[in-house]
Write a structure and sequence with these properties.
- The chain is α+β, with helices and mostly antiparallel strands.
- It has helices at 12-24, 35-45, 61-70, 88-97, 109-134, 137-153, 236-245, 247-273, 276-291, 303-310, 314-326, 343-346; strands spanning 4-8, 28-32, 49-53, 79-83, 101-104, 157-161, 166-168, 176-182, 185-190, 196-202, 207-208, 222-225, 229-235, 292-293, 296-299, 331-333, 336-339.
- It is 47% helix and 22% strand.
- A hairpin with a 5-residue loop joins strand 9 and strand 10.
- It is globular, with a radius of gyration of 23 Å.
C-alpha cells in the first residue's frame, strides 16, 4: 500500500507541481492551500508524511508544526519544511520545534524524493517498536500510576467539597496535596478585571495542589468544586517524605506534569489560532471526552464556566451554542448541553 503525503503550500503552481511529482512517484497525495486547512487534513487523513511551506497567511508552517506535534493523533508524523529562506536561525527554529528535515526552494525532483524516502524509511523502522509498547510497558505504567496514587492517599483524611466550595484560593499558603476520589473540580485564575479563566477540569484519579511546594509555597490560582466531590488530603511534609523515599511517586508527578503541560500548550494554540466557533467547538470536544457515557455526553456545567474554559465572553458563548443547536451539532436538556457525537465539532477546529 502506497504512503500518503500531505502537501501544505499556498502557492498554487508549486503545490500542483509537487502533487504531480509525488503521484507519478507512486505516492497517494492530499493537498491543502493554507495552514489551517492543512491541520484539518492532517487530523482527518493522518498521512505518513507532511510537506509544509513556512511562509503562509493565517497560520504559517511553524504554527502548523506546533499544532500537529502537540496532538497525539498526529505527533508521530514525519514533518519536512519547504522554504526559500536559507537563514540558519530559521532552520534552527524549525528543528527546535520538531521538524525532521528542510528542503530549500528551488529543489530538483531527486532531492525531494530522496528526502521523503529517507524520512519514511526511518518512520517505518520506528513504528513496530512504538506499536509493541502500547500493549506492554505503557499499559503497565498506567496501572502502576493508579496503584501508586491509591497507596499514597488511601489512609489520608477524607474531605467533601460541594458545588462552588473552595479547595484552595489564590495567595493561600500550601499545606496539603490532594487526590480527587469522585466528582469534578475546576482549576482557574482570575485576572485584574475579575474574569475567570479555567485552565482545566480535574476528574477522579487526579492528584493536584503540589506545584507550590516546588516554587514559593503560594497557590497561583484557585480550585473550586463543580459538583459534590470527595477528596483525600495529604500534608505537605508527609508528601515530601514520600517523594524522597519512593521513586515511583516522583515518576507519578513527572508524568502528571508532562500531561498537563501538553494540555495547556494545546489550549494556548487554540486560543491563538482558532475562531470563536473553533474555540467553542474545541471546548465542547474536551467536555465531551470528560462527560461522555456510551457515546453521548450530557454536560451540566454553567454557561459562565464553559465560557471561562473557552476564554470568551458568556454572551458570545450563548450565541455560538444557539447557532450550534440550530445546525444540529448539539442539543439541550433544560440547562444541560447534549452532545451525541464529537466528529461535527472536530471539523470546526482550526
Amino acid at each position: 500500500m502506497s504512503s500518503t503525503i500531505l502537501v501544505i503550500e499556498d502557492h498554487d503552481e508549486i503545490r500542483e507541481n509537487l502533487c504531480e511529482i509525488l503521484e507519478i512517484s507512486g505516492y497517494a497525495v492530499v493537498s491543502a492551500s493554507n495552514g489551517i486547512e492543512g491541520v484539518k487534513k492532517a487530523r482527518t487523513f493522518k498521512p505518513d508524511l507532511i510537506l509544509c511551506d513556512i511562509l503562509m497567511p493565517e497560520l504559517d508552517g511553524y504554527g502548523v508544526l506546533r499544532i500537529v506535534s502537540k496532538d497525539p493523533k498526529t505527533s508521530f508524523i514525519p514533518f519536512i519544511f519547504l522554504t526559500a529562506k536559507t537563514e540558519v536561525e530559521d532552520m534552527r527554529r524549525g528543528m527546535t520545534l520538531g521538524a525532521d528535515d528542510y528542503i530549500m526552494k528551488p529543489f530538483d525532483d531527486a532531492q525531494l524524493l530522496d528526502a521523503i524516502e529517507i524520512r519514511l524509511k526511518k518512520y517505518r523502522q520506528k513504528t513496530p517498536i512504538a506499536s509493541s509498547n502500547l500493549s506492554g510497558p505503557l499499559l503497565w505504567n498506567m496501572e502502576r500510576s493508579k496503584a501508586v496514587t491509591k497507596e499514597l492517599f488511601i489512609h489520608e483524611e477524607k474531605r467533601i467539597i460541594r458545588d462552588k466550595d473552595s479547595v484552595y484560593h489564590e495567595g493561600q499558603y500550601c499545606r496539603e496535596v490532594f487526590y480527587l476520589v469522585s466528582g469534578k473540580l475546576k482549576v482557574s485564575k482570575i485576572n485584574q478585571m475579575g474574569k475567570d479563566l479555567i485552565s482545566y477540569i480535574l476528574t477522579p484519579g487526579s492528584i493536584f495542589g503540589y506545584y507550590p511546594i516546588f516554587q514559593n509555597n503560594i497557590y497561583q490560582g484557585q480550585c473550586v468544586g463543580l459538583e459534590t466531590s470527595e477528596l483525600r488530603c495529604l500534608g505537605k511534609d508527609k508528601f515530601l517524605q514520600k517523594i524522597r523515599s519512593n521513586r515511583d511517586v516522583f515518576y507519578l508527578l513527572l508524568s502528571d506534569q508532562i500531561r498537563r503541560t501538553s494540555f495547556l500548550e494545546n489550549k494556548m494554540l487554540d486560543h491563538a489560532y482558532n475562531s470563536v466557533r473553533g474555540k467553542v467547538a474545541h471546548t465542547l470536544v474536551y467536555l465531551y471526552e470528560l462527560y461522555q457515557k456510551d457515546g453521548v455526553a450530557e454536560i451540566p456545567l454553567r454557561r459562565e464556566d464553559i465560557a471561562a474554559i473557552a476564554g470568551i465572553a458568556k454572551e458570545t458563548l450563548i450565541r455560538t451554542l444557539t447557532a450550534f443547536k440550530e445546525e444540529g451539532v448539539i442539543d439541550t436538556k433544560v440547562t444541560n448541553i447534549i452532545i451525541h457525537a464529537a466528529e461535527p465539532l472536530n471539523e470546526m477546529i482550526y
